[in-house]
């Protein structure tokens, strides 16, 4: 029988499927209660909803679904598979000039940058974030274009933070806030961008040693995330609040970070589990179970290439 690499193999690494099989949608997800959902609904639930650890993922078809797959896989720490999904987005949007295609080309670049940044490659990430901003710059003020531009701007601000350029990071966040304010009345459609603005603001404040300001931004992110469905955004907001609390009550910060760690593990959010483990171990001096080294090794096994830090 003729065989080919299936969509499931590319996204989930699940093997080789014969073309005479039931097709790419034979198994929509790993849990029976998802079988009545559309592909987009399932992927949305994993990428920005209540089931971030769901696997295997639905087989994507549209450009949007391929991007959602990349986001979902990245949240699970499956970086190699996530990059493969972004490669599909890049191929399908290459040379196209419609606004919708440019939006996903930009989102692909900024998502790729986030994967680099999460493993310490802030300098490399800045190139992809810069490309993401250039793709949508000057194209208009639709919510979709503004959202993509804001993703790029917050990404660039985080890249600047990772390279010690805090003043530049704040200026980039000011530009992001200006973009959001231009769409007054559309904030509900930019919920993710507003939360990201608070995240990076908190991170910049932490890097500046201003724990009061960091806590204010982190608590605002927690409040905003609580009003939505994305468990991943709620967990990351909680983790940032824990980081800000280390400047006031390290014991409480470590205790709350332990709750975040448990949520990350139960929800399949490996990168955030690793980050919360690093925070707990740094504050308390006691290893988590599994410890940060084991979690980092798991990230590496899924395609996350950590940058070695020179002392």
What can you see in these coordinates?
There is one protein chain. The chain has 14 helices and two strands; from the N terminus they run βαβααααααααααααα. The protein has 311 residues and is mainly α. The chain has a domain at 209-301. A two-stranded antiparallel sheet has the order 1-2. This is MalT-like TPR region domain-containing protein.
Radius of gyration: 19 Å
What gap, in angstroms, lies between the N and C termini? 56 Å
Shape: globular
Largest sheet, in brief, is: 2 strands, antiparallel
The overall average pLDDT, rounded, is: 89
Taking pLDDT < 50 over at least 5 consecutive residues as the criterion, the unreliable ranges are 1-6, 14-37
Run of helices and strands: EHEHHHHHHHHHHHHH
Q: What's the arrangement of strands in the largest beta sheet?
A: 1-2
Helix content: 55-70%
Q: What structural class results from the helix and strand content? A: mainly alpha
Q: Strand share of the residues? A: under 5%
User: Count of helical segments?
Assistant: 14
DSSP, total strands: 2
Protein name: MalT-like TPR region domain-containing protein
Keywords:
mainly alpha; disordered N terminus; 66% helix; 14 helices; 311 residues
What is the fold's blueprint, element by element?
Blueprint: E1 3-4, H1 7-12, E2 17-18, H2 39-48, H3 63-75, H4 79-93, H5 99-118, H6 122-136, H7 143-162, H8 166-181, H9 191-207, H10 211-226, H11 231-245, H12 250-267, H13 270-284, H14 292-301
Antiparallel strand pairs: 1-2
